[in-house]
């Protein structure tokens, strides 16, 4: 089989139909999609089985939540394709999505990262920060030095089956939010593989974060996962705490007293006022709160 797409999903019954319809439009027909339901909380299995009557889609169902790393492992170790593609359940794949991933692996031994474009609803967070941040993230990714591209390994990536088995599965100790993807990408980098941030993809991401409170909560929660990464691989992530710029000193000060409760309260407060502030001020307040939340989460996780 040419390719397998592995999709970890939880509560995705309303998101999966758009993904499946974009699978139907693929120019590459020698493909399967494995949807791993990480505890079926909304009868997603019936959605998958409905589409399985007409598309190469099949489910793997966990009776209870085991985490994204476990879901990815179940799908990838069961996959039959020569090229293994990881996709989130809220993506809309362009018609040449599979063909494009597979062609890049024909050219050279490598990992492939395809950056997505977020599709935002019109929320205060999106207007103040989300839309601009999405554009900035994609620009930063394409400007990343080749030896650091592993840090963008995420929800639209691919490798060969051979390389997946050489690297090994995702680390299931990354049970909570974040870093299971980056950690796997780093191990692929240690294998000596080029990791290409590929131009030309137009994949749409229909499930971005839509509120400041959710964004800050995620940033804080990722601290524990970051600590696991550092414990496992050493401090290979750039350390921003030594930067003595005025902005970094402000971030550091804001992070010192932050807790999960205050981070959540800050996010809720910002969501209420962002539309009343000048755009520049609103953007800077979200950026400051986000960076401070991430640093607080890391500090309280032991770094």
The CATH architecture designation of the largest domain is Alpha-Beta Complex
Coarse morphology: globular
| CATH overall fold name of the largest domain | Spore Coat Polysaccharide Biosynthesis Protein SpsA, Chain A
The CATH superfamily of the largest domain is: Spore Coat Polysaccharide Biosynthesis Protein SpsA, Chain A
The helical percent reads: 40-55%
Instruction: Summarize the helix and strand pattern as letters.
Output: EHEHEHEEHEEHEHHEEHHHH
Instruction: Write down the Rg.
Output: 20 Å
Count of helix runs: 11
Domain module count: 2
Widest β-sheet, arrangement of strands: 3-2-1-4-8-6-9
How much of the sequence lies in strands comes to 5-15%
Please tally the β strands and state the result: 10
CATH domain class name of the largest domain: Alpha Beta
Stretches with pLDDT under 50, minimum 5 residues: none
The biggest sheet amounts to:
7 strands, mixed
Distance between the termini: 44 Å
Supply the helix-strand structural class.
alpha/beta
Mean pLDDT: 95
Please, could you describe this protein's structure?
- With 303 residues, the protein is of the alpha/beta class.
- Helix content is 48%, strand content 15%.
- The chain has eleven helices and ten strands.
- The chain has helices at 16-24, 44-52, 68-78, 97-107, 124-142, 161-167, 180-190, 212-233, 246-256, 260-273, 279-300; strands at 3-9, 31-38, 57-62, 83-87, 91-92, 110-113, 117-118, 156-160, 194-197, 204-205.
- The strands form two sheets. A seven-stranded mixed beta sheet has the order 3-2-1-4-8-6-9, sandwiched between helices.
């Amino acid at each position: 089989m040419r390719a397998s797409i592995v999709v970890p999903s939880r509560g995705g019954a309303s998101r999966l139909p758009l993904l499946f319809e974009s699978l139907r439009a693929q120019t590459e027909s020698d493909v399967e999609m494995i949807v791993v339901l990480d505890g079926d909380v909304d009868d997603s299995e019936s959605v998958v089985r409905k589409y399985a009557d007409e598309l190469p889609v099949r489910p793997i169902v966990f009776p209870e939540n085991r985490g994204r790393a476990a879901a990815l492992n179940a799908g990838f170790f069961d996959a039959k394709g020569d090229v293994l593609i990881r996709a989130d359940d809220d993506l809309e794949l362009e018609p040449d999505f599979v063909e494009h991933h597979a062609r890049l692996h024909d050219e050279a031994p490598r990992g492939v990262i395809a950056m997505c474009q977020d599709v935002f609803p019109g929320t205060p967070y999106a207007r103040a920060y989300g839309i601009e941040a999405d554009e900035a993230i994609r620009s930063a990714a394409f400007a990343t030095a080749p030896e650091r591209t592993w840090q963008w390994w995420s929800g639209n990536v691919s490798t060969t089956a051979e390389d997946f088995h050489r690297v090994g599965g995702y680390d299931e100790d990354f049970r909570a939010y974040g870093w299971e993807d980056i950690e796997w990408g780093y191990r692929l980098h240690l294998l000596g593989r080029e990791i290409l941030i590929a131009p030309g993809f137009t994949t749409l991401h229909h499930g971005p974060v839509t509120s400041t409170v959710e964004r800050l909560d995620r940033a804080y929660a990722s601290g524990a996962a970051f600590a696991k990464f550092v414990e496992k691989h050493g401090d290979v992530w750039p350390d921003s705490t030594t930067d003595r710029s005025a902005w970094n000193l402000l971030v550091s000060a804001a992070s010192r007293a932050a807790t999960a409760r205050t981070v959540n309260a800050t996010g809720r407060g910002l969501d209420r006022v962002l539309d009343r502030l000048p755009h520049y001020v609103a953007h800077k307040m979200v950026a400051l709160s986000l960076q401070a939340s991430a640093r607080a989460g890391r500090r309280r996780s032991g770094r």
